[in-house]
Write a structure and sequence with these properties.
This protein is of the alpha+beta class. The protein folds into two domains: 61 residues, no CATH class; 95 residues, Immunoglobulin-like. Helix content is 20%, strand content 36%. It contains three helices and six strands. The strands form two sheets. It has a three-stranded antiparallel sheet with strand order 1-2-5, with no helix packed on it. Strands 4-3-6 form a three-stranded antiparallel sheet, with no helix packed on it. The longest helix has 16 residues.
Length: 183
């Protein structure tokens, strides 16, 4: 063998059909669902595969069938839930925002378009809205909770959200997402 070269072994699979040509070979693995891997830990999977090939070559079909039964049982288990990010509000944004004074200059109403990049739906979205003086100083702020469902990777339009009373010196207003609750 050359230095740094790979060793390739040829393994011939032996089944009960080779031992007794009248019996069909047992189905060792059922069909796998698309996108599912037989073993999450690739090193463990490789070692188990080598051990299974050895058992097949040595004619230990009972051990091979037991290994396959364990593998089928593991694949039948529901997949673990996708981990949720620590700060999911970072993945939700206000894509569009307009505001107006309503009920003859008493209340500010906002129209928001909220977009989510999260792989799960949200049932509550908390927004913090502020009113700014013409100088840019925050003169008032309010928090509001939107209780409409925002679908996974979706978009939600909120119209006429009551932000609160109009401050007499308000020149502009803005909102940001501060908290979200998964559905």
């Amino acid at each position: 063998m050359k230095a740094g070269g790979a060793v390739r072994a040829q393994v011939r699979s032996v089944s009960s059909a080779d031992e007794n040509p009248r019996e069909p070979a047992p189905a060792l693995l059922g069909p796998l669902e698309p996108g599912r891997t037989p073993d999450a830990d690739s090193v463990d999977g490789i070692l188990r595969s080598i051990a299974m090939e050895f058992d097949v070559v040595m004619g230990r079909t009972d051990r091979v069938q037991a290994d396959c039964a364990r593998l089928r049982a593991r694949l039948a288990e529901p997949a673990a839930a996708e981990p949720r990010p620590e700060n999911p509000e970072r993945f939700v944004r206000i894509a569009a925002f307009t505001w107006s004074k309503a009920v003859p200059e008493i209340v500010i109403q906002a129209n928001l378009t909220i977009e989510s990049a999260l792989p799960f739906a949200l049932k509550e979205i908390e927004v913090a809205c502020a009113q700014f003086a013409r100088s840019g100083v925050v003169i008032d702020s309010q928090r509001r909770t939107i209780t409409e469902v925002l679908p996974a990777h979706g978009r939600l339009q909120v119209e006429a959200l009551n932000i609160g009373p109009v401050h007499p010196q308000a020149g502009s207003s803005g909102c940001r997402i501060v908290n979200v609750t998964p559905a």
